[in-house]
Amino acid sequence: MSTPSNPTNAYTVPSVSITTARTGASSKANALGMRAMQERAYAKRGEQYLLIKSPPASGKSRALMFIALDKLNNQGLQQAIIVVPERSIGSSFADEPLSQYGFYWDWQVAPQWNLCNAPGVDDVKVAKSKVKAVGEFLASTDKLLVCTHATFRFAVEELGIQAFDNRLIAIDEFHHVSSNPDNKLGSQLGAFIARDKVHMVAMTGSYFRGDSEAVLAPADEAKFETVTYTYYEQLNGYRWLKSLDIGYFFYTGRYVDAIAKVLDPALKTIVHIPSVNSRESLQDKEREVNEIMNTLGEWKGIDPTTGFHLVQTREGHMLRVADLVDDSDPAKRSRVLAALKDPAQKDNRDNVNIIIALGMAKEGFDWIWCEHALTVGYRSSLTEIVQIIGRATRDAEGKERARFTNLIAEPTAEQAAVAEAVNDMLKAISASLLMEQVLAPRYEFTPKNFGPKEGFDYGEEGYKDGGHNMGVNKDTGQIHVEINGLATPQSPEATRICREDLNEVVTSFLQDKTVLERGLFDKENTLPEELTQLRMGKIVRERYPELGADDHEAIRQHAVAAMNITQQAKLALAQAEAGGGATAQGNTALLDGVRKFVNVRDLDIDLIDRINPFDAAYAVLAKTMDEKSLRQVQASIAAKKVSIPEDEARELAKRALQFKNERGRLPDINSADVWEKRMAEGVAVLARYRAQAKAAQAQGDSSNG
Fold first, then answer.
1. In angstroms, rounded to a whole number, what is the distance separating the alpha carbons of residues 26 and 38?
2. Is the C-alpha dihedral spanning 411, 416, 419, 420 positive or negative?
3. How many other CB atoms sit within 10 Å of the CB of residue 182?
4. Which of 306, 343, 338, 341 is nearest to 119 (CA)?
5. Does 104 fall in a domain?
6. What pLDDT digit, counting tens, does each position of 305-337 carry?
7. Is 0.70 topped by the overall pTM?
8. Which of the 8 DSSP states describes residue 177?
9. How far apart are CA 144 and CA 110, in angstroms?
10. Under a CB-based contact definition with an 8 Å cutoff, are residues 56 and 120 in contact?
11. CA 575/CA 651 separation, integer angstroms
12. Which range of residues forms the domain containing residue 699?
């Protein structure tokens, strides 16, 4: 953990700070020219439905090229259609001479079939106009087409799903899809899967959505073979990038007056200004861009070739600034986009210095030299945050440090929308916690005395007396931890979830409104078990309804363990640093912290369930906000006294029955143990609910009589 320098008119939540080992594994290529993630995905190339979960900059686009070319040349598919969320991402699928690196074929898209390069702006009218081109492609003998999500949706509506039989449909940024019937692309993909006459490759850097909707229906998701490559693996395997810092800065007044404190002209930066509908916006996006440029220096004109603004700093350096906010002149905007996507400039560090954007330059935007992603205003979606951070985490020669900064308005008593400010604060805190989970290494938990796993280093103690029974695979960053009393998943799908999808489960938990409100602001009346057992259990059951109770409990325990092992390590390292001890660095920092300060053998399920997953967040709030602001937050949320809902009372009663089976008696409502008391309260409340329901039924019967 580290704290960035503090601007004079702002204060900051302590940042997430990740130090990488720089193993070079992410950039090493095999004999076919494939990097680690691409090789992992290519091994599954024969699957009809393939889901690739891999962070920004890990090479998903080229992995798809390898897979698509094999399907076209070896698996009998007729054509491949690559679908991206916005036109700027189409450049990721430009021609690549893959045979130069050892592969069997080159990737070549005929100019007329890369519909992302067609002139015009991203709107419905243009997307509809390209449907004719999609039909012409399907009737041709050409093999590859690239288009936007919108164009594909309209083409499917007009041409029908049968027109795409025996073709590969590859969906980039798959988290745009939703199982909600109102999500058109999600409904269409469900129809394709039901017809079962296409192959599908889905790719995403974050297989979770900000709106808590499921990406796919459980039955459809079960058909996909999954390839997982974690953010931790990606960053750790870089050659150049040493560290990533994530920080939250709070300002008062106008953000354009505070932005100079966090915008360093010397860093290659993407600035995302706030939505015009947000409270941070000044309601004039062109003026905001001009004021940001005035902060950087003196405007000297526009480069006629690229459309970039030329701004001279006070030190005399000339900055090249790309404005992606101004959409009043489509020709001008197209010129700027073309200059940013120019393949000849891809390796030119000095092509552009600052990019200012509103809704663009997020997903799939490939600028390897970006060192700083500066975002103004809250982003309630973790998916969006992950994508924005991904803009700065490309590995490039000489780039040793990357950072993400979120500049957000400080909640103050003078603001009318106090509740909104508090809600924004929760978003910032939860996003910070979520990023730590996303960036943490992948865990594999097993019951105690499971035994060592091949390829894992268990340190000098190893499995000797007193050893911690915890090891790390230094090639992948995966950590194996033995925990006493851990439930084992029973089905292959639950085993896969515990191995690959714990981040998604943790994300759903930490984004849950009840968890946020009760875990952060009603701690005195909320027991940790209510969150880690009841709420997490409910989330797991709703997310995986097709699994049985034993699998639900195993997934719940693994997810809670992942959250709290991370917190234990952070706490131990922070305490060591405060006491003057040395902090571990590199890819073993988390492992070394836990091994040195926490006796893993003593971590059992009872202990894990009793750790409040929001202790760290509450400490951040109390430390960062002044007394007046904290009172305001508490007045808005903490005063809510939440009664026990019927479904939670029922779950408490089930836990009470388990308690009785283990101890031979029911929980005592007068017990000094707060969890035992809470279970007893659940039994009493459930009895009251049942009595009320019986009385209502009796009254209804009497009225009918």
1. 10
2. negative
3. 8
4. 338
5. yes
6. 999 999 999 999 999 999 999 888 888 888 998
7. yes
8. -
9. 8
10. no
11. 37
12. 643-705
